[in-house]
Write a structure and sequence with these properties.
Alpha-Beta Plaits, globular, binds zinc ion
C-alpha cells in the first residue's frame, strides 16, 4: 500500500489548488479543476462506478457494495438482506489561501530519527518538537515536508490520497465486505464554501466522514459555532484644516476606538485556547468618511456565541451614543453551527468510528475543532459527518508536514469503517 499512497500524495501536492476568497466562481480557482480532472481519470481507471464531476467542481464516485453476509435475526434465522446505510467519505481538493501553494516541492525525510528538520528554501525555518510535539512519536516514520517556500498541502491532499488509496484497496480486494461507499471530493473548503453547491440528493448517503484531521486516533465531532459580523461606521469628512470648526467626524478613528475597546484578554484568538470562544477582527477598510470592519465570532456553545454578539453590539451602541455625529451599525449573520448539537442525538457515527480506530490497534481520542469543517454544514443539513484524522500537522504554513505511516493508519481505519458500516443496519 505504501508506495501507492506515497506516490499519489506526492503527485497531488504538486498541483497548485489554492482557493481564493475574492473569486466568485466555483471552484474559485482553475487549479482545482486540474486536480479534480486527474482524480476523475484515476477513479475511472480504478473501475469506480458512477464517476461524475459536476459543473460546480464536485467529484463523486461509488465503490459498489461487495457481497455482504445476510443479517441474522436473534432467533438465528436468516432475514432478507437489509440494505446497509450508505457511507460517504469526503476530502477537499483546495489548499489554504494563507500561504503559497505554487510549485510545491515535497521532500521525503525517510526513517526520521528525531531532531530538527531543515528547509532548503528558507534556512531560518526549523521543524522540531517545540512546534510539532507529535514528531516525538514519529521516529522511524517517513516524514514529508515542503521545501520552505510553500505550504505542503497535506491539508487536505492527505485526505485525497487516503481516499484514492482506499478506493484502490476496496476495488481490487472484493473479499472485503462492505456496502455502497460514496466518495466525494469538494472544492473551496478553505474559504468556507466547501458544501455550498453540493446536492445531497446526488450524493445519496446516510452517514459521512471528512478525512481532514491530524494525529492518528483523532475524531472531531464537536466544532465551533460561527457567526460573521460587519460593523459599518459613517463619519463626516471636512478639510482637515477646518476640522475643528466644520465638525469632522473620523470614521477611521472611531473604528480604532472600537477595536481598542474589545475585551481582548478574554476573547481574542491569541488569548484563548481549548473551549474558549473569541471575537476576531479579520479585515478593516477605513477612511475619514467611512470604515468597515469584518469580524468572525466563535464559540462551542450557542449562549457563548450569542454573548459575543451582544458584546460587539454593545460596544457599537456605546460608540454611537458617545458620537451622535456618526452612524454606527453592526450586522451579524450565521455561518455554521457546532455539529455536536446533532450528533449528540445519535452518536452511532462517532461510536462506529471509535470502533474502527480501536480495531487497527490505536486508541481513539476526541478532538474538538476550534474552527468549522465541511462536516459542520453537512451535519446541520441532515448528513452526520464527523471528521477523522488524516495525519496532517502545522497546516496552512511552510512547516506543514505529514508522516506516511500516519496516512496508512487512516487508510486502514477507512477500510474498517467500510466493513463496520457494511454490517450495520439502517434505522
Ligand atoms: Zn482541511
Amino acid at each position: 500500500m505504501a508506495d501507492t499512497l506515497l506516490s499519489r500524495f506526492l503527485r497531488y501536492v504538486q498541483i497548485d489548488t489554492q482557493s481564493d476568497e475574492r473569486s466568485s466562481s466555483c471552484p474559485s480557482t482553475p487549479g482545482q479543476w486540474n486536480l479534480l480532472r486527474l482524480l476523475k481519470a484515476e477513479l475511472d481507471t480504478l473501475g469506480a462506478a458512477n464517476v461524475r464531476l459536476t459543473d460546480a467542481g464536485y467529484l463523486m464516485a461509488t465503490i459498489p457494495a461487495t457481497n455482504l453476509p445476510a443479517a441474522t435475526k436473534k432467533s438465528g434465522a436468516r432475514s432478507p438482506r437489509i440494505q446497509a446505510p450508505r457511507l460517504a467519505l469526503f476530502a477537499h481538493v483546495d489548499t489554504a489561501p494563507d500561504f503559497s501553494g505554487k510549485d510545491v516541492k515535497p521532500i521525503v525525510h525517510s526513517n526520521y530519527q528525531g531532531g530538527a528538520i531543515k528547509f532548503p528554501g528558507n534556512p531560518r525555518l526549523l521543524l522540531d518538537e517545540t512546534v510539532a510535539p507529535h514528531l516525538l512519536d514519529c521516529k522511524g516514520k517517513d516524514i514529508i515536508t515542503a521545501s520552505g517556500t510553500t505550504l505542503l498541502g497535506a491539508d487536505d491532499k492527505a485526505g485525497v490520497a487516503i481516499l484514492m488509496t482506499l478506493a484502490e484497496t476496496l476495488l481490487t480486494q472484493p473479499r472485503i465486505p462492505h456496502g455502497d461507499i460514496r466518495l466525494c471530493f469538494t472544492p473551496d473548503e478553505e474559504i468556507g464554501r466547501g458544501t455550498d453547491k453540493l446536492n445531497l440528493k446526488d450524493l445519496d448517503a446516510d452517514v459521512a466522514y471528512t478525512l481532514d484531521g491530524g494525529t492518528p486516533g483523532e475524531i472531531s465531532w464537536e466544532t465551533f459555532s460561527g457567526d460573521a459580523a460587519v460593523v459599518e461606521i459613517e463619519g463626516t469628512s471636512t478639510h482637515p484644516g477646518e476640522a475643528g470648526t466644520k465638525g469632522m467626524v473620523s470614521a477611521l478613528h472611531l473604528a480604532a476606538k472600537l477595536l481598542c475597546a474589545l475585551p481582548r484578554e478574554k476573547c481574542a484568538p491569541e488569548s484563548t485556547t481549548g473551549r474558549q470562544g473569541f471575537i476576531h477582527p479579520t479585515r478593516i477598510e477605513a477612511g475619514v468618511e467611512k470604515a468597515t470592519i469584518k469580524f468572525i465570532l466563535r464559540d462551542f456553545q450557542m449562549p457563548g456565541l450569542e454573548e459575543k454578539g451582544r458584546i460587539l453590539q454593545g460596544l457599537c451602541k456605546g460608540l454611537q451614543a458617545a458620537t451622535p455625529g456618526a452612524r454606527v451599525s453592526c450586522k451579524i449573520r450565521k455561518q455554521y453551527r457546532n455539529m455536536a448539537y446533532w450528533l449528540e442525538k445519535d452518536m452511532r457515527p462517532v461510536d462506529l468510528a471509535r470502533q474502527a480506530i480501536r480495531s487497527i490497534g490505536i486508541e481513539p481520542t476526541d478532538h474538538p475543532v476550534r474552527g468549522g469543517t465541511d462536516g459542520s454544514r453537512l451535519t446541520e443539513s441532515g448528513l452526520p459527518a464527523p471528521n477523522l484524522f488524516a495525519g496532517m500537522h502545522n497546516i496552512h504554513g511552510p512547516l506543514e508536514w505529514v508522516a506516511l505511516q500516519d496516512m496508512e493508519l487512516s487508510v486502514k481505519t477507512c477500510v474498517k469503517l467500510a466493513e463496520i458500516w457494511g454490517s450495520a443496519t439502517s434505522r
